Amino acid sequence: MFSRKLLSRMIVPVYIVIYLLGFSWLESKVTYGYHVIHCGLDSLIPFCEYFIIPYILWFVFILAVVLYFMFFNRNEREYWQLILNLGIGMTLFLIISWVYPNGHALRPETFARDNIFVDMVKVLYTIDTPTNILPSIHVYNSIAAYMAIRNCEKLQSRRWVQRGSFCLSCLIVLGTMFLKQHTVVDVVAAIVLNLIIYLIIYRPARAPEPARSRQLSGLGQNL
Q1: Is 150 within the bounds of a domain?
Q2: By CB atoms within 10 Å of each CB, which of 49, 72, 200, 213 scores lowest?
Q3: Is 36 a member of any domain?
Q4: Largest alpha-carbon pair distance within the chain?
């Protein structure tokens, strides 16, 4: 007999398979006739190949956070907050990409430098098309992972984890734009979407009315 906890953990790999199948289908379907996303700020952001490092670290970061909350953090509420945050965002991304085919034309045709980082970017460009970009899943999931760490009771005292995850998340967000993988519109859309989902999932628990009355009464006495 599978335990209830183990069954809840199996949801993650099952969903990942479903998501990857949906994403692969969209990648093969959206090849022309899509809406090109662009804004003035995109032209002001230069290409910088060195951001390929945090961009690739995104995969390690998300996997590490999910595995930590899945197996090493005993707080079920925090686990489901992370999983729901990721799952809702990724599902909405698939729906948006299906209803509103989109892409960009920001990738450079030539590179000013020739180094290993540029070679890594070239490989990235060959395996990832510039379509299905709104909102940026790299940005959305990075923020979701950081918020899970930020709200994790067990990790509150681990300042290096808090600060390190925040810095890595910021570098990943910047990397999506400096590598010309996403437009500013994609990034802003991901941030706004994550904020909305965050406020729904991580909404503070309301104190019982008697407790709130006592708090207000005590505040009045102090004043």
Answers
A1: yes
A2: 72
A3: no
A4: 70
Single-letter amino acid, residue 216:
L
The contacts of residue 100 (CB under 8 Å, 6+ apart) are 35, 134
Tokens of 219: 């505040």
**Rounded Cα gap, residues 131 and 127, in angstroms:** 12
Cβ–Cβ < 8 Å for 20, 94? no
What sign results for the dihedral spanned by CA atoms 152, 153, 159, 160? negative
Into how many domains does the chain fold?
1
User: Running DSSP on this structure, what letter comes out for residue 72?
Assistant: I
The tokens for 194 are 């994550």
Please list the pLDDT of the chain residue by residue as tens digits (223 residues).
445 666 677 788 899 999 999 999 988 887 778 899 999 999 999 999 999 999 999 999 999 999 999 989 889 999 999 999 999 999 999 999 999 999 999 999 999 999 999 999 999 999 999 999 999 999 999 999 999 999 999 999 899 999 999 999 999 999 999 999 999 999 999 999 999 999 999 986 444 445 444 444 444 444 4
125, part of any domain: no
Residues of the domain holding 86: 41-103+131-205
